[in-house]
Amino acid sequence: MDISLSSAVRYAVQDNVAVIKLDNPPVNGLGDTVRAGVYAGVEKALNDAGIQAIVLIGEGKAFCGGADIRQFNTPAALAQPMLKDVIAYMENSAKPIVAAIHGFALGGGLELALGCHYRVAQKGALLGLPEVNLGLIPGGGGTQRLPRLVGAAKALAMIQGGKPVSADEALQIGLVDAVVEAPLLDGAVAFAQARISQAEHPVIGRRKASAEGVDFKAARSGIRPKARNALAQGVAIDCVEAATRLPFAEGLVEERRRFDELVAGDISKSLRHLFFAEKEAPRMIGASRSKAGSESTIKRVGILGAGTMGGGIAMACANAGFPVVLCEREQAALDRGLALIRKNYEITAAKGKLSAADIEQRLALISPSLDTKDFADVDLVIEAVFEDMAVKQEVFRMLDATCKAGAILATNTSRLNIDEIAAITKRPESVIGLHFFSPANVMKLLEVVRGDKTAPEVISVCMDFAQRIGKIPVLVGVCEGFVGNRMLTGYWREAGFLLEEGASPQQIDSALTRFGMAMGPLAMADLAGMDINWATRKRLAPTRPAHLRYSKVADRICERGRFGQKTGAGYYRYEAGSRVPLPDPVVDEIILECAREAGIERREISDEEIVERCMLALVNEGAQIIDEGIVQRASDIDVVYVNGYGFPATRGGPMFYAQTLGLANVLEKIRALQARHDDHWKPAALLERLVAEGAEKF
Ligand code: NAI
């Protein structure tokens, strides 16, 4: 019979073996009750003369997924005993302790297992120390024990790389002592019983770590400086090296010191924030997910338009195994689209990521068509035709007439009003925006745009579908540019103003890439195509407040037929076949001319000013978006910017970044900009309210 040792750990006896069961769903995270329960279980077993060995095993789907993330930043995370105390207690046990691992043992979960005398794993289990992915290193002895058990080379691969190994690999490298078939518990108990007669049981900390085959210097110089976890990787290398040099106890102290530094630093805080933000983003507040998800609802997808986006979306669907009907107006466009899809697959194959058979299998899922009647039996249509309201409405009238009842009609529009598109149909509840990002087969972000009348069930099915095709869906409301593109307006506005005030395109872009952006705003405009924004500006010109400053630089560049990379020139010029932006005196001339006309006296601009104005423009608009209820939560904006706009993950996204600057500080800077410039800088009401309340978070 099981005895409860704490709310999350149970104890049972099988013959002469004590079985300590972690029972803290969903992944047996090492919360305070688990740590206390394991400690109590070992104590109970040691005090019972009838017990000769101990097995530690997890209930549910896994042994242990590591720290209990729900307790992060709460007092429970620091409650005694800490993991290191539990491990020290186990290591001192004269009775053998065996970790019985199924599912996975990750992070603190593997460290707990490393604190046992023996480890056995069920076939299929995964063992790893993935902390670097959150900008951390293992902090419970993992960097000191793993090298002592499997050698520094293999330990480094696991700790710096953050990738888990399978049970079979674990056996091969000596991380586990045996791989057992199910039932795991019986195998582990038998394994433990066979060790009872041994005079001593192995304690990893007493071994020496071999540095054989490791070039720590080369490992350090191999880190990609732009990797989001570059800092943590470096620390991981330092700690593994320390394991080969320092006595065990000193190594543990060193590991803890480095861990504490990382935990307190902005980079890991940002990465952890994003980890939660990305988990949270697909959840719909206040609506329970459709039980069936999209599995029963979406089996076949129709895509209209085989251009840049339609082709990429078709690939994303086919990659996830969905049959797709890809429809175009004319044969030539269809052929072009299909040829591009094949070429893209071949590029992936050339990198060794896809086999020839994979390509054929995926292409076979894409049925080309010139007749929209082929959409009659699809469950979801995604339209990716030209960005023009009249064209979109005509298409939706046709889709409404063609598609079966219950089919979801989605538009990939990047700016048009979904409600106006929905209104043209007799089923506005089935109309939704699915805003993919280019290249759609690569980019993770998907803005799911709910219209006024979109049914919650339709939203829920689309959020689920998005995840099935490997995207991170963020639910957004209808507004000009939705979330990501709407925020770019102010970001580009400041870049344009800074050009007139004295900065060069190169200075603006390099200041922002040094900040961490994957690309500067002007190089990005050239990549995206400047004509699209030009058209939007012309469309919005009649409603533009006349008293606010307006930079004509972008318009003047477009007037010369320079739309960016696709025309070989935009803010920069491009040599044929090259994507490298080169400075262009023509643009410098346009900038000077615009500044002159606007009566602006050019001055020296600092990189700090560039970063501050471009970032605060994002933050202020983001705050407004939150206030309008366009997003479900502030962190959704961070997910959008990191996954769709090249914002540095190490800064957590624009809203998290604002929090690290301090909201009061941000408001003060925005007010100063408003005083110096104009009402473009009117602080978002939400920001003012939060600061007045003394809040530190959005
Ligand atoms: P594109 O010009 O590359 O492709 C549009 C395709 O639609 C063309 O192949 C055209 O022949 C076809 N088409 C036009 N009318 C049609 C009709 N009635 N029936 C069937 N096919 C038709 O355009 P792109 O860039 O793929 O954009 C498509 C949509 O995606 C637009 O609404 C755009 O705003 C949106 N979008 C574009 C992004 C980008 O980075 N290019 C990013 C996100 C959204």
In short:
With 698 residues, the protein is an alpha/beta fold. It has three domains: 3-258, 2-enoyl-CoA Hydratase, Chain A, domain 1; 291-476, 3-Layer(aba) Sandwich (Rossmann fold), CATH 3.40.50.720; 484-629 and 662-693, N-(1-d-carboxylethyl)-l-norvaline Dehydrogenase, domain 2 (Orthogonal Bundle), CATH 1.10.1040.50.
What are the key terms here?
binds 1,4-dihydronicotinamide adenine dinucleotide, 7-stranded mixed beta sheet, alpha/beta, N-(1-d-carboxylethyl)-l-norvaline Dehydrogenase, domain 2, 2-enoyl-CoA Hydratase, Chain A, domain 1, single chain, 698 residues, 8-stranded mixed beta sheet, Rossmann fold
Would you mind describing this structure in some detail?
With 698 residues, the protein is of the alpha/beta class. It has three domains: 3-258, 2-enoyl-CoA Hydratase, Chain A, domain 1, CATH 3.90.226.10; 291-476, NAD(P)-binding Rossmann-like Domain (Rossmann fold, 3-Layer(aba) Sandwich), CATH 3.40.50.720; 484-629 and 662-693, N-(1-d-carboxylethyl)-l-norvaline Dehydrogenase, domain 2 (Orthogonal Bundle). Helices cover 47% and strands 12% of the residues. The protein is built from 28 helices and 18 strands. The chain has an eight-stranded mixed sheet with strand order 13-12-11-14-15-16-17-18, sandwiched between helices. It has a seven-stranded mixed sheet with strand order 1-2-3-4-5-7-10, with helices on both faces. The longest helix is centred in the C-terminal third of the chain and has 21 residues, at 607-627. The protein starts with a strand and ends in a 5-residue tail after the last helix. The mean pLDDT is 96. Residues 304-310, 327-329, 333, 384-387, 391, 395, 412-414, 435-438 line the site of 1,4-dihydronicotinamide adenine dinucleotide (NAI).
